[in-house]
Amino acid sequence: MNSDHIFDLLSQKKLSEADAKNYWQGSFKDYLDIVLEHPEVTGTAFKRIYDMVASHGFETYIDNKKKIIRWKFFSDPLDNGKDAVFGLDISLMKLMNILKAAAYRYGPEKRLILLHGPVGSSKSTIVRLLKKGIENYSRTNEGALYSYSWTHVGKILSMENVMKCPINEDPLHLIPQEKRNLFMETLNEKLPKEKHLHIEGDLCPACRFMYKNLMEHYQGNWEKIITEHIKVHRVLISEKDRIGIGTFQPKDEKNQDSTELTGDINYRKIAEYGSDSDPRAFNFDGEFHVANRGLIEFVEVLKLDVAFLYDLLTASQEHKIKPKKYAQSDIDLVIIGHTNEPEYRKLQNNEYMEALRDRTIKIDIPYITKLKDEVRIYEKDYNKKTVGDIHIAPHTLEMVSMWSILTRLEEPKKSNLSLLQKLKLYNGKTNQNYTEDSVKELRKESLREGLHGISPRYVQDKISHALIVNKGEGCLNVFILLNELESGLKHHSLITDTETKRKYIELISIVKKEYEDIVKYEVQQAISADEGAIEKICANYIDNVKAFVQKDKIKNHYTGLAEEADERLMRSIEEKIDISENRKEDFRREIMNYIGALALDGRNFDFKANERLHKALELKLFEDQKDSIKLTTLVSKVVDRNTEEKINVVKNRLIKNHGYCETCASDVLSFVASIFARGDSLHNPAKNS
């Protein structure tokens, strides 16, 4: 390989078919052929953005008896999930319903869409996704859009020979007003209703100037203008090139200038064209002009000076803007603003903003309140690929997610329901006492959940800091990170209330207790993971249950003598799953009936099929073996060789079955050993579910 070969690769001597289409040019008549075949090219900005999202498909699921649509586009398939949004399916459904209604001209197309929520709730990410999506969509056949240039006009109008439409408007605007109804009727009679054409708006001031002067030159011969001076071309939306995407961020009140939105006079061209009202001497580079045919983002829109509101209201309601010294320009764009909670409250209390409130559709973008979705945020950023040089211990991201969500939840009104139980219900862990209907009730009584609490950004900052500080340790565990979160609260810039800080620290204690229960159970599982031993205990239990139910005796394997069923053995297992004394006979009969039903079908009983019995057998085995393993000797650091071998077996099971590394497996064994050393009881999953 040499430089010539590399240069040939870079030069792309032959454009691909897709590239060729992206740079297509043709006559106005050629464009009409495209319109007949693909009428969607004339669609509005709302229609184009809705179609773009919908083109990626969707899936439905049921959440607490409510049908939810998950739009796949918001998982960021264009960038391998880089800007994926998690846990906001309901809010995104509302956004898509608004876009769809606007696409069909039902009213929302005359409104400003306002994404409202606390800092760090993905408002900017959603807009960034839409920008990225519409850029990509404009390069596909389905999302193609077109504009035009004025050509061969230099000699006639004493100017440059070619002038592109400065706002990339639809070529159909060139059709005279008096001919439009006939044109649309002729085309629409051949199209299904949902694809009917609508020509909205008129030529921008610069193109109107060209059109008017050429009509005078050709004495009203429209066909001559269209065939000799109009060249239609493909438009590729690009934020970097300022085509079809605009962004406006308010400065401080003294420096805000409306020309940033509506464009300004080019004083150097006044001398060339002789008048400051000649549209050729105007820069159509305001954000509204730039965003035509696409979308404009207003960052912290409610910080706009009141003087800007007139431009914003006219742009949203009338789809028109008024440049200085020029007639109104028609624009076609989606206006999306976003703001936080304090700014929105200020809007509600400002009577001068009443007109804006009336023309705004608000969509709440809250923090996530489902544990599994919050975990996905941090797993996306902190995983083996991104932080491969340091191991993140199991449950670490889960526990920090649990804490962040607890700060966002409102205290349940039911006295017998804790905040942690509420979190688990929201995460899908219902039971006989709290069903899906209960979760719906909890949601209804807590309408402001997710609009306050800890931001994911705070958690991400603390994870990043902990990773750097503990880089040489090789492993980041739960306690390191929870302590990092707690110490950071002292200097949190957005949490100044002492009572709130105290509450958040208490929630960290709740999370630590939950983590204790989880790791105790995992260690118990690792110790009692000998399936052969469990099968022996199970066989012994079933033999005794059979003898008990059938009022029979059981043969002692060692003495060979017939003995009564071992009540002590059976109760030691049943108590692990809270089978009371007065329920024991019913439970044992249920077991025997189940075994009998399996036998009739020619199947054998498998203890794994009965989850409750399986857990009870694991706990029984753990209880029998924990003393022989002498886990508590880890606390004293004095471990004999036999015990060390047994502990290594348990450690390897934690590594193999639960994702621990050598470091965090040792840490968790020592931690659980300290718990047992202080006399804590076994973890019973039946009690903690």
Features:
49% helix; disordered C terminus; alpha/beta; 4-stranded antiparallel sheet; 689 residues; 31 helices
Describe the model.
The protein has 689 residues and is an alpha/beta fold. It folds into four domains: 17-44 and 140-235, no CATH class; 107-139 and 241-366, 3-Layer(aba) Sandwich (Rossmann fold), CATH 3.40.50.300; 371-513, no CATH class; 528-626, no CATH class. It has 31 helices and 19 strands. A five-stranded parallel beta sheet has the order 8-11-14-4-15. Strands 1-7-5-6 form a four-stranded antiparallel beta sheet. A two-stranded antiparallel sheet has the order 2-3. α18 packs parallel to α22 (478-489) and α23 crosses α29 (641-658). The protein is elongated, with a radius of gyration of 35 Å. The model is unreliable at 685-689 (pLDDT under 50).
